[in-house]
Amino acid sequence: MKIAKKVIELPPSGIRKYFDIASTIKDVISLGVGEPDFITPWRVREASIYGMEKGKTTYTSNWGLLELRELISKYTFEGSGGDYSPNNEILVTTGVSEGIDLAIRAITDPGDEILVVEPSYVSYKPCVIMAGGVPVPVSTRAENDFKVRREDIEKRITRKTTAIIMNYPNNPTGAIMTRKDLEEVADVAIEHDLMVLTDEVYEKLTYDGRHASIASLNGMRDNTILLNGFSKAFAMTGWRLGYACGNADVIEAMMKIHQYTMLCAPIGAQLGAIEALKNGQSDMQDMVREYNRRRRVIVRGFNALGMDCFEPKGAFYSFPSIRSTGLSSEEFSERLLYDQGVVTVPGSVFGESGIGHLRCSYCSSMEDIKEALARIGRFLDTLKTEKAPTIKKRVKR
Amino acid sequence: MHTRGPQDYQGGRHQARRGAAQALSDYHNTDITYHHSKKRFRLFLGRNVTFLKVNAKQVTPTTGFIPMATSKVRKGSSDESMREVLELLENDSRLTAREIAEQTGLKEKDVQRFIKEMEARGIIRHYKTLIDWEKYGDDSVYAIIEVQLNPERNVGYDAVAERISKFPEVVTCMLVSGDHDLHLVIKGKTMKEVAFFVAEKIAPLSQVTHTATHFMLRSYKREGEIMFEKEEDSRLVIHP
Ligand SMILES: Cc1ncc(COP(=O)(O)O)c(C=O)c1O
Fold first, then answer.
1. Cβ-proximal residues to A175 (8 Å cutoff; 6+ apart), any chain
2. Could you give the ipTM of this predicted complex?
3. Which of A166, A361, A395, B85 sits a CA distance of 20 to 30 A from A244?
4. Single pTM value for the model
């Protein structure tokens, strides 16, 4: 049996292990889920079911339903300055996941270096590798609120660098970038002629101020591939629906790959998405408000426990530091899971700059979040008593 | 030679306002500039331009300025967060002022004061729990009664509606449009009890011309709450 070398060499997902442990433990509370705990708003489900009833079960255009692309153009770019034509600058994909893969494949030749801003969502690097490119990490730090800065990027640029992938609001940190922060990145991109792949799937989940897209900055429209989707904002993870926007040539290139691999996104999902964009805004806002309440509770909770947690301004993750405990993030996660049945994801899974942190999503009920915080508090107490002898020894000396 | 004069003071103040505009721009992720001659902040919201009126005394270039301006930018935002307090309480009346403050980012004291005020003004009417009595095993009987009325001179429907509302058996009493006037929900121990109540207390009132009784068989949704089994959480505990 032959398996391609490229695939064999792909590192396995760092999360698998915790999943296997969790499945053996009773009464687990999961802060490990990056998926809304809401069910897709009923009106969206109903619209999709109605379409099925009416026999809408066919392929759609490779680009996706025109009505959907028109709505995407209207709702995504209203007031943002960067608007894309529904005819040839917007491609409907099967989730942002496919969009990421298409975008990378469409612009990567073997050996091209692609900068990946870290801590980052887990799929960027493997996608770059599978496209024959070389992923190059760009670190960000808690001290800078995990924003990527001009000098961080410039340090990593070589003659082979062709693009940069970033994701704000960010998974796993919850960091956002303001327009001013993005100007810096835009300057570098233009100076070095880099393509910017921006994954804005958490765009609607921004809690303070407004979301800004790098695509809407001066001179960036054609240098950007904007990726977005319905999974998070409309609680539609299982529907597998996203979209990509960019310059017509790039989108055309992505469409070519899409045409031969996916053909088109599922029609039922597209019908649901049309309803979501037309009438789902208030359902979405209700969800966002609920996330915001949980965000306040969880961040406050971690800080009260002495786990430094900067304030995430977007997405639905908190990213507290566990450095004060002296454990590595893997150790912490694993022991917390065994001791208290709380599932978290070690920050190291998201790249080197996530080391010393824990990703805790707040896609769980308020009760679960409070209970999880209480359990983490108990876990920290056991760590302290464990450490007491060592500290005493030190004092004696 | 240069001496300090009113001109400089003016300049200083404009400087401060420009600083505030910068801080505001960052906060709102949009362009906010200070308009010198109009003494206003100019705010771009998409294609629209809005001017903010600002009390000069409150302008400082620090973030201290932002909460005040924010409430102007997001029109009625404080109303909105107070509304959120009411919504939270509507969904769970057990929440303490402290818990509400934690969730909304408001001050505990403000929440307390607001709730007191809402109670005093009769906007918060009552703290109640929605119970599925059927599931508990209780066999109370509910009926919807449609009542047609002859309105009275001067008092219209109010006098008779208020009179009917006072019976403890009447759970709900609403004036409605359509082919009947009052919509009642009656609670009783047995169908017979409800039927007699309607026959003896409601139908004989001189203003009542017609009643129709519908016994409730099953509740699917009450007060916005789905009363059948909800969808389960089928997410994996961790992924991908
Ligand atoms: C940053 C980021 N991008 C993309 C995805 C995947 O989105 P989709 O469900 O649209 O494929 C996720 C999911 O967790 C994510 O966090």
1. A140, A145, A146, A147, A168, A169, A312, A313, A314
2. 0.75
3. A361
4. 0.81
Q: A74 — contact with chain B (CB < 8 Å)?
A: no
Only one residue has tokens 């992938």, namely A165
The pLDDT score that the predictor gives to residue B26 is 62
CA of A193 to the centre of ligand 1 (A): 27
Domains of chain A in start order, with CATH, are 5-40+281-382 (3.90.1150.10), 42-279 (3.40.640.10)
* Distance in angstroms (rounded) separating the CA atoms of residues B136 and B129: 14
Cβ of A200 less than 6 Å from ligand 1 = no
Are the C-beta atoms of residues A203 and A167 closer than 8 Å to each other? no
Q: What does the block give as tokens for B43?
A: 């705010």
Express each pLDDT in B32-47 by its tens digit: 666 666 666 665 544 4
Percent helix / strand / coil, chain B, rounded to 5: 40, 20, 40
Which secondary structure element, helix H or strand E, spans residue A17, and what is its range? helix A16-22
- Sign of the CA dihedral running A63, A64, A65, A69: negative
Q: Please enumerate, as own/partner, the contacts of B91-98 that have beta carbons within 8 Å and a separation of 24 or more.
A: B93/B127, B93/B128, B93/B129
Q: Is the alpha carbon torsion for A377, A378, A379, A381 positive or negative? A: positive
Ligand 1: atom nearest CA of A94 is 11
A289, B84: Cβ pair inside 8 Å?
yes
